Model the fold of this input.
Amino acid sequence: MSLSDVFSTARAESRAALIGYLPAGYPTVDGSKDHLRSMIESGCDLVEVGLPFSDPVMDGPTIQAAAEQALSAGFRVRDLFDVVSAVSDAGGRAVVMTYWNPVLRYGVDAFARDLAAAGGLGIITPDLVPDEADDWMAASEAHGLDRIFLVAPSSTEERVAMTARASSGFLYATAVMGVTGARDVVSSAAPELVGRVREHTSLPVGVGLGVRSGAQAAEIAGFADGVIVGSAFVSAVAEGETAVRALAADLAKGVRSAAATV
Amino acid sequence: MGQFKPTPHDPDARGHFGPWGGRFVPEALIAAVDELAAEYDKARLDPEFVGEFQRLLKDFAGRPSLLTEAPKFAERAGTRVFLKREDLNHTGSHKINNVLGQALLTKRMGKKRVIAETGAGQHGVATATACALLGLDCVVYMGELDTERQALNVARMRLLGAEVIPVKSGSRTLKDAINEALRDWVTNVDETHYLLGTAAGPHPFPLLVRDFHRVIGIEAREQILEKAGRLPDAVVACVGGGSNAIGIFHGFIDDADVRLVGVEPGGSGLDSGSHGATLTAGTPGSLHGAMSYVMQDEDGQITEAHSISAGLDYPGVGPEHSHLKDIGRAEYFPVTDAEAMEAFALLSRTEGIIPAIESSHALAGALKLGPSLGPDGLLVVNLSGRGDKDMDTAVKYFGLADGGQA
Done:
């Protein structure tokens, strides 16, 4: 099962894919495995497993606090592969979302090798642009992983085109200029950005930053191929498994209710 | 215009000094750093921009700064010592050079809002000063711990009209203030310039911050030739992020016989693990937008730096220093908190100059280097700032309030 299968399955059902994020090691290593499995069972087509990092400049307070908690509980990079394995062993599909320095430190090729061995499908790289990604291009090719780069409302046409060419699996469109965190309304910049991306690529486009409800998911599903939800899942974990399952179910309903409006 | 002339030491078009530097930032910020790089490329060749910058340096900051011989301090160093007096600049350190340059660039780009990070408060105060002068809105991010340690500088910034936001995340110090400034920038990038305080960060910051500080080295080279009749054997500067060092180094970088010596914060000693000697003890990594040496654990988590000097208390370093270390053009070694404080007291007592604790690291480095050069040797030490801001630390360290003597 590859990332393109995730999106073609959703497309065959005339809906968007639901992508849920949770940091590995939050609230504990075993706890994150359980919650990720719950997210998949309750409707996530794909999970993003976050690698907690000491200096998460793209993250708002919710994910910062989760990463801090995981690190102070002793989370290690090797635990990430363990969590990814748990997801794939349960029949789920996982990509990793990570700041670049831990990958550099581990060794780009070694990280790709161990992620592929754990059944991971690719890496989302919030602070690595294709301009600096030569090692990652080579390692991802060597180990059969997808490269999910980000595009932003501020990206020029040239950069959207260049980033799309460098990407595989899907493109991550950041809906707003800003950091992660649940917001009340979907940004008007998101549909415009997705429209611009589509002029340059046939790759699926996932939209993230600020999504927290089924209604927002439905709205985004009206113009994007994937709806990405992060901080809202992190908050739900603090409330417990029932809240995680309920959120996933609500969002899963959302990504299925937009088809008629497209 | 010598200060802005492109040199063979400039990074490539994407900001690489050898394997160092570059841009490890979110895509959302690429448009802003591209805009800044394009604007700087034009400005550095524009006589009007350069003229306005030089006028502000002269009429507002008080340049050129003096080069003062320190003969009594030199007795302890065992070699001849001159001090480049950046402590005499307006706001009390070299920081004013860079903030005036970037504030002018901000106006050129038509932006109205400036954000900055600060550790000890020197860069924050300098930024607030430039914004007051040039009519820009100013927000300064400062670790909550540092706002407590440097309450007087917080008051200064507020008096100058800046908003100071205490940062409560992470270690609540400089690196977390930079994280928070980057988060603000990515959210408000259209109308906001991030006025980074050191020669680090994504391209073009290491280049332009260096160039705004090149005036230090250009002046120092002319002054030492005039006063000593020859080039120095070594130029010595402290290195946290490395902006004062890179500024003075560049005046001498093509003089192959002049050693360029960077002195790092050794804290309680390298063996203690409690230090900030990134170039001496760090490993390659990406932090705050550039590839450079960083202090990190085996998982790539950034570790906290420790130094008695808040301005050197940073687990990263500017990428050009990593390059200069690798190619062997510059050399770096640490001195401990205790050695720096001894030099702090020594310069105060022997020459009537109270140096910043940051700059005291350079002075301690000179005391170590001096004996090997002997009485015929010649050192230029960059006295990057004055020590007024450090009196609280000195009072505690030397017990001055209880009748103690440094």
Notes: The first strand of chain B starts at residue 16 and ends at 17. Chain B touches chain A through 39 residues (CB under 8 Å).
